[in-house]
Structures are given as C-alpha cells and as structure tokens.
TrEMBL record:
This is VOC family protein. It holds the Pfam family Glyoxalase_3. Residues 8-186 form the Glyoxalase-like domain. Gene3D superfamilies: 2,3-Dihydroxybiphenyl 1,2-Dioxygenase, domain 1. It comes from the Bacteria.
Length: 283
C-alpha cells in the first residue's frame, strides 16, 4: 500500500504569546518567517524553516474564532502539540489510511496568509486529519503543500545556532501499545523497530520515538517525566546542527542556560523554549 508519505514535514509548538515565542526562539538562534494567519481561523504562526522540514510556533490571535482546540491545549501547558507528516497526494494518503483501518473525515483544505512587504502571500494546503482515537492519542496529521515555493526563501533557512533540521521527536507514555499500533497502521509495519522498551518509527524523513517515562528520562534528562501517564505527551525534540560546539557558543553568548550530554549534545531546558525540551546533535 502506497501511503504517499515523505516523512516528518513539521512539528507544531503551541505557545500562549506568539510574539514572545518568536523573540524567545530568536534568542535561541532561530530565524523565522513573517507571521502567517490561518484563513477563517483564530490562529497565526511563525515558522522556523529548514531545507526539508520546519517548526511551527502556533498561537491564538482571535479567541472568538475557531482555534482547532489550541485553547484547550494551552490551558494545560505550552510545548509540542502535533506531528505533521508530508504527503505527496492527500487523497491517496487518505485512501491508504482508510484501507489500513483508520477512521477519517474528508480531506480538508486550509489556507494561510503570509505577511510580506509586497502584500499577503497565500499559502494553500490539503490536510488528512485522523481523530485522536485513530492515532493512539497523539496529535498527528498529514499535509500536502500546494504552494511550497514561497515558504523557503534562502535567508529564512540560515540560523545563527547552525540548526539544519529535525532529527527526531519523542512521545512519552506509560502505555506505549496503542501508540505503536496506530503508527503501524499509519506508516506500515516495516517502518517500526523495537529496541528494548523504546520503539522507533522511521517516517522516511525523521524518526518518531515512543518510550515509557523511565526510558524517556534516560534519553532526555531535562524532561520532567513525573506527571506522564497513559495519555501520550510529545516530550522532546532533537534537531541536527552543523557543529554542536558552535551552537553551545551561541547560546552562551545569548545567556541561555544549557547542558552538554556525555556524547556532546546540547540540551536546552523546556523553560527556555516555551515548554519544549530542545536538543541539538551533530547532523
């Protein structure tokens, strides 16, 4: 079955103050696009673009409009709230997921107006959005970009911290079984490998790790796992960088607290990244 998936497209980071988040991530060494406003919704974003993927800082700018439950998420916390995988063909992805036993609505169109000196630029997408029950409780959907070219201007891809792209994200839960079963349906059994208690889903670009709290803590020592239960939590994000020493030097210059792991990764605590346990490793 050809799911037409091309791997992790972007990760969504929910934030309570969008402008403050943009400034905080700039302090961490990330350039971002101009602000984008979702057409017909009460949400907007800044995107941190890489060559093949990106991070989306997502906030509410009009609480009277549709927020796609972002308001409920932000009542609890800030941080990683969703994994978006890229699709070459949204209809084909939907058909394959349905054949694998995933309950789905029709493909949904979404637009975003990107602010520009020359006026707004319309970006268009087609999304396949399974319900939480079909994803094992993980926020995950597929996205086909219809207008990819305006999103990647050369200046937006260069980051002072040397970041190059997403390497992995980690889902923590005390009950990994339902999440693993969902990932098998969504990505195929051949993409899933099990090592002790940690399961890796090789999406085609980027890896999704699924782990119980104790293994999450071993892999990501700055993650607070004390409150993690059966509900899956996107606990950590690992980015590839050109040179971790350069990343560490930049963060030190900015006065950002961080730690170095025994193998050289640069670890930034969640309090410095709007709830995200952020790790930089050699690409």
């Amino acid at each position: 079955m050809d799911r037409q998936l091309i791997g992790i497209d972007h990760l969504i980071i929910g934030v309570r103050d969008l402008e403050a988040a943009r400034a905080r991530y700039a302090r961490l060494g990330f350039n971002s696009t101009p602000r984008g406003r979702h057409v017909g919704w009460g949400t907007a974003n800044y995107c941190i673009m890489f060559e093949q993927d990106y991070l989306e800082l997502l906030g509410i700018v009009d609480p009277a409009q549709f927020t796609n439950d972002l308001d409920r998420f932000l009542e609890r916390r800030e941080g990683l709230l969703g994994i978006v995988v890229g699709s070459r063909d949204a209809e084909a992805t939907r058909a394959a997921w349905a054949e694998a036993g995933t309950e789905l609505d029709a493909v949904k169109a979404l637009g975003r107006l990107l602010e520009s000196e020359d006026g707004p630029i319309e970006l268009r997408f087609r999304n396949v959005m399974p319900g939480r029950a079909a994803t094992g409780g993980v926020g995950l959907f597929a996205c086909q970009h219809l207008t990819p070219e305006p999103m990647r201007r050369p200046a937006w891809l260069l980051h002072p911290n040397g970041a190059r792209g997403i390497r992995s994200c980690t889902i923590a839960t005390t009950d990994t079984g339902p999440v693993v079963e969902a990932m098998v349906r969504l990505f195929g059994s051949s993409t899933v490998t099990d090592t002790d208690n940690v399961v890796a889903v090789h999406t085609g670009h980027g890896v999704i790790l699924i782990a119980p709290p104790e293994d999450t803590e071993l892999m990501h020592p700055l993650v607070d796992t004390t409150a993690i239960g059966a509900e899956p939590v996107l606990a950590a994000l690992t980015l590839g960088v050109a040179d971790p020493d350069r990343t560490a030097a930049f963060l030190k210059l900015q006065g950002v607290p961080f730690r170095r792991s025994p193998t050289g990764e640069v670890l930034v605590p969640p309090v410095e990244a709007h709830g995200v346990a952020l790790e930089f490793t050699a690409a």
